[in-house]
Structures are given as C-alpha cells and as structure tokens.
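Quick board copy: two proteins, each given as sequence then tokens.
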Amino acid sequence: MRKTTPYAVIASLFLFGTGCAVHTKPLSTSDLMSRVAADRLAMYEGQETVQAPVTLEEAMARALKYNLDHRIKIMEDALTLRQADAMSYDMLPHLVASAGYSQRDNYNASSSINYKTHEQSLVPSYSSVRDHFTTDLTLSWNILDFGVSYLQAKQQADRAHIMNERRRKVVHTIIQQVRQAYWQALGAQQMEGRFEPLLAEVRKTLNDIECVEGEKLRPPLETLNYRKTLLEVLKQLEIFRDELQQAKPRLAALMNLPPGQPFNLVVPPGMDVPGLCDNLSAMEEKALLQRPELVEADYNERISAADVRKSILRMLPGIEVNVGGNYDSNSLLVNNSWIEGGARMTWNLMSLLSGPSQYKLAKGQAELVKAQRMALSMAILTQVHIAYQNYQTQVRQYELAGELRDVEKKIYEQTRNAAASGSQSRINEIRSATSTLMAEYRNYQNYAAVQNAYGQVNASLGQDPLPETVGSHELSQLSLAIRNQLDTKCPAPEKFYQRAVCRSSAPVTPAVPPLPAGLR
C-alpha cells in the first residue's frame, strides 16, 4: 500500500494538470464568414448614399468623414485625450478608506519582565477584547510625487496635441489624394465611350488586312507593316482604356464607397488653372508656421524640457503629509475614535549618484529634438520650393498639352478629308484618330497633374481644408466649409506660351541667328 501511494499522487497530479489545461478549437468557416459579413456591414454603416453627381468638395468631405484611415487617426486622438485626462488625477492626494474585523479564541493578554531582576513585574493583563472591528479614512499627499505627476500630465497633454497634428497630416494627405483622383476620374468620365468605337474600327481594319495577307493581294512586307502599325495602335488604345477603368475605383476607395457602386462627377464649366496668392517668401513663412510636422516638433521640445525638470525633481527629497480619522470598537479603549496626522520626509540617496547622469541624458535628448526640428525646417523649406517649381512645370505642360490637342484635331480633320477623297490610306486616318484621342486624354491627365501640383503646394504650406470649428458634420455642411476654405480666389497664373499675332498676310521669313565669330 505504501509503494502505490507515490504513484497515486503522481497520477492525481497528472489528471489535475490535464484538467486545468486550456484547449481551444480553430476558427471554423462559419465563424470567418460571420466576421466577414459583420465587417462588410460595419465598413459602410451610417454612410449617406450618393444621390447626385459628386463635386470635388463633396468627395473631400466624404473622404474626411468616412475614410477608414482618417477614422483610425480620430480614434487614436480621442484615446490620447482620455489618457491625458486620466493622468491628471495622479496629481490628487491619495484618499484611502479601510475597514477590518478581528476575532480570536482567547484574550491577547501579556505581562512584563523587570529588566534588571528578570522577574515578572506585573500580573498578565489584556487591553483589547477578543473580537472588534476597525475603520479609518486617511488622506496622504506626497509633494514630490505631485510635482512629477504635474509634469507628466503636461507631457501627456502635449502628446494629445501631437496626435492632433498627426491627424492633420493624414487629412492633408487624404485631401491631396482625393484632389488628384477626382480630376483623373473626371477625365476618365469625359472619355467614356470614346475608345470603344475606335477599338472596334482598328480590329475590323486588322481583320481586313489579315484577309488581304491571306489572299496575297499586296506584297507581304507591306501587309506586315500595316499589321504592325495597327497592333501598336491597338496596344496603346488598350493601355489607355485600362487606365480609364481604374480611375473611378481609386476615387471610390478614398470616399469609402462600396466597390462597383456607380457614381458620376460634376463637370466644371471650364478647366481653369488654380492660382497661387503668395510669393515664395510668404509661402516659406506660412510653411514654418503651419506645417504639422514642425508643430509636432515644438511639442516634442516641450516634452523634452519637462523631462529635464523631472530629472531635477527626482534628486530632491520627498515630503509626505497625511491626516486621517480612525475608529476602533474595542470596548477597553478610552477613546474609540480619534484623528491622526503626521509628516514624513524620504530621500533616496542613490538618486544623488544617478541623478546627474539622468539630467545629462534629458538635456542631450532636448538638444537632439531641437537639432531635429532645425533639420526638419530646412527639409520643409526645400519641399516648398520643389512644390512651387513642380506647379510651374505642370502648368507649362498643361498649356503645351492643350496646344498639342488642338493641332492633333486639325491634323485629324485634314487626314479624314484626305482619306475620304482617297488621297490618304485608312490606316493613316486611324493613326491620326488615335493620336487625337490620346492627345485629348493626355490633356485631362495634365490638368489632373496641375491640380495635384496645386494640392502639393497647399500641403507643403500646411493649409487645412477645414476651419478649426465646423457647425455640423453633415456632408452638406462639410462640403460648404471645404469650399469656403479652399476658395482663395487667387488670380490665375500668366500663360507661359502666347500665340503669335500676325499683322500681315505676307509670308514671314524666319530670322536666322548670326553665326559665331569663329565660323564666319
């Protein structure tokens, strides 16, 4: 019996451990399907449906209100604010209430021994009953902890401001993406249905040439060159058509619309080039004042300065003051309730050794943050200049694209008339029609590039698309606020290329520049 006891104990422990083990089962297909259905419902829950053509301001408002990335930043901002509110309570004194009950089977009696004679000097006695209960309410406050908690609360409040600046950065990025995607989608909308007839004509002509090649009605090299030309045209048209089909889904994703949901965009009366109100010097000043990255760096500098002050406070002694009320039901006490108070000073002497190094570390961190802010300021000034130059470049490219589109249209009219009279081949007409269509599409692309460059300038300046306060978060009110904020009414830039004004019908002989002196 004694030999089987250890085995029984081991077996019991094994069964106990096995029973306490946690077993989980993998997610089933039905669980995953339920999660997918719930997520799809939550992604588009509470959104206003698209009932009319979407304006640029409405697209921006939808992106700011429904875009999931922006929602995440708003939630992070709110969480940081709650953390700042929670840390502010650390500055309050500690108020501790306690209650207890004590009972024993005999009296807590004791006697005394004479120190010199080592004999009992008193008969055994007790000063408390066998069962009694106690309560107390104590208020304590550590002045050093209050100072550190105050600085930590200030730091957490600055971190909340940092999260707000990061949210501003996300808003600037979303607005810029929406601006670019909107104008690209509008160009695709204007070109809808323009590529399919030409593609059908190219395929029909390609089939005819293949028949001519099969019947050997023309020289093989000539038909092969025709086929090569048409295949290259077909490839270009397919590429441009695919680009058109991807434009609206990109904008729909930014507005958080369900994939495949149809919507139309408002066609503006004209494709005017947005102008800039400020010169480069004023733009630099605005960027240094408004960019969220620099404001975040300012808050980081304040946080680092608070770290320096905390390192100094931690080297000081701590003073704790406490006061409290007490009650004891012990019937042998003369006073069953009393108020007690006191003060105590504590000093961690090891902080005198580690404190200077902590102070130097905090000072070094503060200097690093300041140097990073200076480097960031230089980078932001560079971004402003690059954005401005890119804006000028895109405006010039857009003007050239418009001129090229007009020329391509005139060439196509001449080629079409010549093909109708038989002096030009059908392939030349198709090639000219393709060039005209692509020139028109590139014109829309260049205008979208101008709008994107204009948005980059605004983003480099840190300009917010919304005012600080909005009366309502309805789409109509957000759209109106964005329109008022972005409607700067700045004059359009001057045209880089002016058409020549011919004063006479006589042929103009182009001026030939003189040769260099060494070549005369």
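And the next:
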Amino acid sequence: MYNSRKVRYISSPEFGKIEVPKKTAQSNNIKELAKIQKEKDEWSKYMNPGGFKPTITSHFRKPQNEIDFLNHEMVLIRSPKDCGQEWASFRLSPFLSKPEIKQYLMKVYNLNVKSINTANFMGRIVRDQEKAGYFRKTDKKKAMVKLDFKVDPELQKHI
C-alpha cells in the first residue's frame, strides 16, 4: 500500500523497488533493506494469499458502535390509581430515556406506543443495623405508556 507519509521507496538495479519506513529505518545498507523487504513480502503472501491490500478510503472518524440490545430490566407493574384502559405502567432502569423506552417496546415486544410519561424516584435512605450507618437504596424510574389498544384490566388493578 502506497502511503507517502509513512513510506519511502528506494530503487536499485540489483534489487528493484524497496519499501522503507520514513522515520525508523533499521539499516542503511541496501542488501539488508532488500532482505527485510523480501521477508515482509513472504509474510504478506502467507497472511494475505489473495494479495489484496487495504486502501484508506476516508480520514473521517469511524462512527461509534451501535448497541444491539439494551441490558436493562423493564417490569410491568400494577398502578395504584385507575388511569384508563390504554395505559400500562412499567418500572425500569433510571438510565433509559423516553425514545429508548419507546424503541424497546416497539422492537422487542411489537407494541405500538402513542405516548410516554416518566417519573424518577430517588432511593430511600435506610439505616444499616450491622454497620451502624445509613445508605441509599437504588433509584427507580416509572414509565406510564399509552398504547394503541386496551390493556387487560387484571394487569392494571392494584391488589
């Protein structure tokens, strides 16, 4: 691969065209450079039998890797209040945003979501009897999701 920033070429009638790194050349002797080039060619034949060399097509940054599957739990809960038959309540990770919740429900569970309302709850402060101190339980998030169909009333009622 020709890259004028990193490589310079030396040609001699005896050995032909030799590829040498610009910054760090191991030797100035043409015979040693030719030997190194020959070893490099043999290695590239073994590692790349098709002879295809990669080319630099762009100097732009590569896009970040997409997350294929979110590793967050989403639990259907019963609401203490009557919200209507189109609404369902979920307890989920506080790190999920509304678009992520919508995409999660639409792609994983094939639910058509009309709207989402969310509420964040801080964890309670609890006294630890063993260590004689206090700690905070984990934070929670509740999502009220409006669907395009009626939800079974048994799933909505709080018992």
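Board note added afterward: The mean pLDDT is 79.
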